[in-house]
Amino acid sequence: MEKVTILQQAEAAFRDNWKFCIGTGRLGLALQKEYIDHLKLIQEDIHFDYIRGHGLLHDDIGIYRELTLEDGSVQPFYNFTYIDRIFDTYMELGIRPFIEFGFMPRLLASSDETVFSWNGNVTPPNDYDKWYDLIQAVVSHFIERYGLEEVLKWPFEVWNEPNLTNFWKDADKEEYFKLYKITAIAVKDVHPDLQVGGPAISGGADHWIKDFLDFCENESAPVDFVTRHMYASNKAKKVTPELCYQDLFENTMMLDELKTVREMINASPFPDLPFHITEYNTSYSPINPVHDTPLNAAYLARTLSEAGDYVDSFSYWTFSDVFEETDVPKAQFHGGFGLIALNGIYKPTYHLFSFFNKLGSEQLHRDENMLVTRREDGSIAIALWNLVMDKGEGFEKEFELDLPVQFKDVFLKRQTIDEDHANPWNVWKQMGRPRFPDKTQVATLKDMAQPLRRTARLASNNGRLKLSFTITKNEVSLVELIPVKDETSTYIGIDDSLIPSYSRD
Amino acid sequence: MEKVTILQQAEAAFRDNWKFCIGTGRLGLALQKEYIDHLKLIQEDIHFDYIRGHGLLHDDIGIYRELTLEDGSVQPFYNFTYIDRIFDTYMELGIRPFIEFGFMPRLLASSDETVFSWNGNVTPPNDYDKWYDLIQAVVSHFIERYGLEEVLKWPFEVWNEPNLTNFWKDADKEEYFKLYKITAIAVKDVHPDLQVGGPAISGGADHWIKDFLDFCENESAPVDFVTRHMYASNKAKKVTPELCYQDLFENTMMLDELKTVREMINASPFPDLPFHITEYNTSYSPINPVHDTPLNAAYLARTLSEAGDYVDSFSYWTFSDVFEETDVPKAQFHGGFGLIALNGIYKPTYHLFSFFNKLGSEQLHRDENMLVTRREDGSIAIALWNLVMDKGEGFEKEFELDLPVQFKDVFLKRQTIDEDHANPWNVWKQMGRPRFPDKTQVATLKDMAQPLRRTARLASNNGRLKLSFTITKNEVSLVELIPVKDETSTYIGIDDSLIPSYSRD
Amino acid sequence: MEKVTILQQAEAAFRDNWKFCIGTGRLGLALQKEYIDHLKLIQEDIHFDYIRGHGLLHDDIGIYRELTLEDGSVQPFYNFTYIDRIFDTYMELGIRPFIEFGFMPRLLASSDETVFSWNGNVTPPNDYDKWYDLIQAVVSHFIERYGLEEVLKWPFEVWNEPNLTNFWKDADKEEYFKLYKITAIAVKDVHPDLQVGGPAISGGADHWIKDFLDFCENESAPVDFVTRHMYASNKAKKVTPELCYQDLFENTMMLDELKTVREMINASPFPDLPFHITEYNTSYSPINPVHDTPLNAAYLARTLSEAGDYVDSFSYWTFSDVFEETDVPKAQFHGGFGLIALNGIYKPTYHLFSFFNKLGSEQLHRDENMLVTRREDGSIAIALWNLVMDKGEGFEKEFELDLPVQFKDVFLKRQTIDEDHANPWNVWKQMGRPRFPDKTQVATLKDMAQPLRRTARLASNNGRLKLSFTITKNEVSLVELIPVKDETSTYIGIDDSLIPSYSRD
Amino acid sequence: MEKVTILQQAEAAFRDNWKFCIGTGRLGLALQKEYIDHLKLIQEDIHFDYIRGHGLLHDDIGIYRELTLEDGSVQPFYNFTYIDRIFDTYMELGIRPFIEFGFMPRLLASSDETVFSWNGNVTPPNDYDKWYDLIQAVVSHFIERYGLEEVLKWPFEVWNEPNLTNFWKDADKEEYFKLYKITAIAVKDVHPDLQVGGPAISGGADHWIKDFLDFCENESAPVDFVTRHMYASNKAKKVTPELCYQDLFENTMMLDELKTVREMINASPFPDLPFHITEYNTSYSPINPVHDTPLNAAYLARTLSEAGDYVDSFSYWTFSDVFEETDVPKAQFHGGFGLIALNGIYKPTYHLFSFFNKLGSEQLHRDENMLVTRREDGSIAIALWNLVMDKGEGFEKEFELDLPVQFKDVFLKRQTIDEDHANPWNVWKQMGRPRFPDKTQVATLKDMAQPLRRTARLASNNGRLKLSFTITKNEVSLVELIPVKDETSTYIGIDDSLIPSYSRD
């Protein structure tokens, strides 16, 4: 039993930069109806500000093409048919693109290396002038279509994880810096107030950050923000033909890394630059079943609670299992990154985000298992979690909270996910893991993806309320304490005991 | 512990005449958006065939009007603007009107007596010729608009509860028979295959049935079906300015009455006539809180299970709390008849109907607490209930079922309402009974109106499955046993124990 | 042929106070789906800021009720079930109520006089203390539900046309002033920044304005704005059992009246008060067929063009034929006020408003037949009209415009309503005036309610463009001149003459 | 002036097999929202029974995959994630797949030849056993998901245009027959009543038909229907980097071909086989601007009118410009096959289909410019057209029809497309051919894509009605003659002349 006594005075502001940005499968997927349906669900409930994904310049969207004229000469052709449709969709859903320039259009590629089942080309341009022209054409078109005022709000990030050979040929740092500088200049040449940044590296290569900022300083390359990714998974323990298993580090690891990098930036020539984590998750594998579990939610709860101390934003990778990096999904649950599984089924981590979205901006208390906040209307909203990476049953934790509440009568609403609730992955296992479930099975999975919801009526005492909670293995709960304005006395002569089977309250 | 062993062979067919018809507030309310929204919810989930309500000829719909000509003479005018809009809505929602002729248009009324806060006039026509013309005009218009083939499926019922003085002036039986005969002839004169019936009496006056059929026989009045109402409530114990409390009879009372009346019809000159219960519920009061409770669902479960043995249909009164017989509803919960409360919140009895809608057509077993059915695909669907009219806690019942299942692996899905689940009335009490809840409160009430849903994976043994259930006070549950086609073995090398915190199943 | 040469420089700002407010049938109708459907159409296309109608306190919404206690005493009960639903709908559609307090709840009425087929009681309160309490309860509830910041934007107008005996018993001016003062104080006692005004008189009684403002000055009654109505119809020439025919005054009459009243206010003790026309139309009769005609649009075009010079707003009466002042509508077209006829069919005057909604805020030229504006993007938008009150055919007018355009290539789009286009009333006559049209007929009427649309490609010359228009009888047209960015040259080798039957452009 | 006198007696039945089937871009595109939006528009208005497209087995849908096991062995994996989503969509929209087996999954391909920008592999399987297994797996899965009763209605066609080298390696006939037989047997081995056919050839190779049927006879290959394509375009006259221009043959050419092939089948060992044209259009190029023109509609009108005499169905290629055979569309109008252009804009040919959808089943008269039909309710529906392949203006045709009508008062509704109406391609040219139009431009194009609609009131004389029409260049019109039930006399005292500016009718 852990006892926590919470003061009336807020200890800090709780910022909502956990919802600044969300990751997506390659942008070309945004033409699909199921993708749009999922994004709509997310936006109506949580409403992220930005969305970031690969593939803006990939050949399925087809922006870069070349036309051969009668005289045999070739001229570039910029085709915005699909990207306009995609960004129009984003605008309608109230989410802005966090632009990532990449990967290389086939016609501009210097060689054949590709990444992912969808063959994103990861090589430098074969002609940097054409690349410069492409960047200018693209950015100019966005301004023409959406207006300068709008596009000034779009960050432009150059490439993705150039420190890894599978994302950038030979992980050639000098070549990346070259690409960066030319791209950044191309953007700024369109309008000097546009925001550009990098180096979008993966974890494990933070010397790139220092080198990158030094490069920008020395070579006068424009830079408006720094970006990096973070994942908590160790190397694969086992890879089957369709699944990948990994261990996870402790969930403080990511926080430590953020702090370290933030300090690196502070010590750089650009100490005031914003720092964005443009991808994070437990595992970096799109076929790791951990993403489908309550553990994933319980693991990341502390990240949502604390990462905002160090970074300007951190972007969960990704909102939906509409995703193809390792081929078309082969089953209803397949370890995808998504907050929403195929067929519109909420995963546990979806609810983690939905719960955090109900928190207030005054932080009353924070520790490794909870975050207690107050909302503008004086009501209290608490996130609670119990990460258990050990196997087996049990592991309940008990808490007793002594809270300040500014009202007498309290309506308590608790929403819970854990191993037994809002765990459609488990129900799906009970069903025999149907790869392609029929409508009835999908309907059941949707039903079972809802949190357990409990309510109660409580009374505070001298402005204090004592609450006890038992938190089960990998539970994440949202508890809301809402003022009650009791109107019972306005029902003259009301008496529930006159109803058969009921008693006076 | 009650043990039930169920045979492979079906004991009977289970008919779905419990969903033949549903009651509605006066038809004029069907212009309202909230009414239509509720009906749409009901139709998408349950899909009743017919809908019956008062007020077809009431002045708010305004079918009967008179125009004064320049020479001072007066001619009838039939205005179908609103009734067309209403019936168009019904047709779009796939539900047909079960027509009730009434009440009296003011201009045709012989005196001023009215019923309900909306002042339905309950007096005989001041001119039976004009009444005959009105009936003909109305029926002819329906045929013109919807086609003869369609309207031949609409039953035409004459008036409502003429045996009660508040619904028919002086409860004058002879006058009713006169009205009946003229109306029936007016209908048949439009087309002889149209279906007409009565006498639409309340309970407690079953001699009217005999008298009515004798009258039809003796006076050659056309009659195609017999109608009656049934309610299980005793006289009011207490009436406050906005609520009415009553005791309920045993829930076999209604079944006994049905049997008796069916036998009366069998013994009449028209032994083969269909018999429709065109209204029923626990209480006949639209402000009795019992309608909002789980008790109401548990009470009526047996009715849904067994009443179809005696009658051709029985029509729950009513689908929605959009209803005005005792004035505009004064609070979110106010004891209304509706399956759906204001603001689109499901009441417990809604789920009773929704659960029955999942039952199969083969009845394997039936008793006072359950109905076990098999569906076409071989799956089993069981309704369970535990009516407790005593006050206080406890009263759980335990059952052990030994069932035939034609498959090895079983997915069990159980959906439950009881005092603690899908009881938004109780949550509303915790909130302080807000009369006019805000959007946040409505959202919580909607969330809390969902059944508890539990799933499990079971294995049958030699074609038999043993299940144990504990049923709480006023619980109604639907249990589905669905064949599993286990695909786990198609996932090569799958091993959940490689996920942190999980074990091999 | 009239020649108009238009200068580059704007002569004035064109204000959009013609869309500040729109009238509605009594608020109780806002529960109906068809009403809401029409309002949604209007808001999506035109988007009015406010909506004003009668009946806030009428008994169908039922705000004021009384409960009789066991001891026989009576207490007021304020029922917000319906008004909350109505105002929630308005808020969702982005339109605010322009509150009109009235008519008198039956239980507060001092006698039986009523107006309209829906029996609005037009008598003073039987108890001014109860009235004061009612106003306070209502306003306080709005603030509780929608927030103070929101409700501070809602004007509160006291009563409707108290200068007419059918709207206020005996048209008793002193009694109205009493009502006004008590109501205004009740509102201000809730919050002093709430806005209250009157006297909401009809035309023809403008001495009330002076008397009203003198009263406010002398009696220290709060007043924040002045309101009045205006209609252009003379007395009825003929009234049939369902239609009313009237002559119309010249369409400058209303403008003259506005100017006169504005000067009266200027000369009053409150010279700076806003002045709102809270109702206007051609005819004040809800069964005058003129409302269904193109004439109605052509007549009011000049009003929309010029009335904003004199008043802060003017509110067209009303947006929809969902309306019941003279009983349920008896036919598809019946002379109703609505911009939208039953079954969602646009009337000509709807398009007048839709056309004005496309005008720019720079007024380049205005006369009795046109209004030429420039929009922010430099494009030109022109409204043209040709009011013809004479019978017969012909009456075309020709115009030649010489316009400044800041671009070379011009895309012209002209949308036209006249006797032969967007005149569903005429098509309905061709159909034989079906009172209750079937779905196919409604579909045709909807099709035929669309404007004639014509486009062309033009070229300007030295920043000037010459255009000729022929305007038919009762035509209203919107002409838009939009800059063209010609991309034809980017299609290498394009040659339409290679398509069978086509030529090079 | 051509005079046509039409008899009361129908000369034939007019069949609606023109709407039996419609073509689509490759099935993988059916995941896209815009594709689904267009199909929904089509189905709501016209409602085709079947839809046929390429790419069922292409790697973007990804049905055929292989998994490598730990021991290095490989096993096939059938992934139905995407095809289930696609066919679920079709089922929801009420359209069934007309299955085309093809193209070859990369892992089953015997070499690298591909077709289209999306690289459909056109080579025989590298292993016919694996192909047989794939076909069985696919068909079995469809039955499992949609039920046998449903899938028995789906035709299974083997491959596409194997007589062309770009669609089938070397256009190897013997290899195709081998593929056909094995595929047909695989289908029949799943269920003998499933329907299978071929050879899906292009025009110009009709000896394949004879050879194919002889093969089936000699080799006992199952065959249930014969399929072929037809296009009316000659070789390209000019090909630009994004457009292709061709001449068209006379529009009787296709009818002649159909007759010839039907006679070939009649003379074959399978004289009773159904004959389906599974693709047709004017041009076979997806970048021929003719598809965007009114000419395309006028050209095909006679095909829709007469082709059903010879074939069981003919399937327009294709419903939508959501299509990628020659890369992502590069402009709003680009010569695509679609009835609906990008952004949901109707092309003229859309209206041709929509007009034919209003025709009756009794054919009263047919010639090269018109088709006169009677509908079940006695109303008359006439399609008229005036194909003009010459350049320039003029070319009007005049017709005088003398028609039988079974009613006195006639409401005439005429809907027209021609060079000046419902020609958004022309408006787009006026706009400067914007490749990626903004929302305002799209809205205007949608407005301008509506037919001209005209109405009139006529009176027949002794059961006959004389009508004159002038038909402009490339006009297609639908004329409907609908009985009027005139209700004017029910409006007592109605007199339009009492409305300012109007006269008594």
From TrEMBL, chains A, B, C, D:
Residues 10-465 form the Glycosyl hydrolases family 39 N-terminal catalytic domain. Gene3D superfamilies: Glycosidases, Glycosyl hydrolase domain, family 39. InterPro entries: GH (IPR017853), GH39_as (IPR049165), GH39_cat (IPR049166), Glyco_hydro_39 (IPR000514), Glycosyl_Hydrolase_39 (IPR051923). Keywords: Glycosidase, Hydrolase. The keyword Hydrolase applies. The keyword Amino-acid biosynthesis does not apply. Pfam families: Glyco_hydro_39. It comes from the Bacteria. Belongs to the glycosyl hydrolase 39 family. This is Xylan 1,4-beta-xylosidase. It comes from Evansella alkalicola.
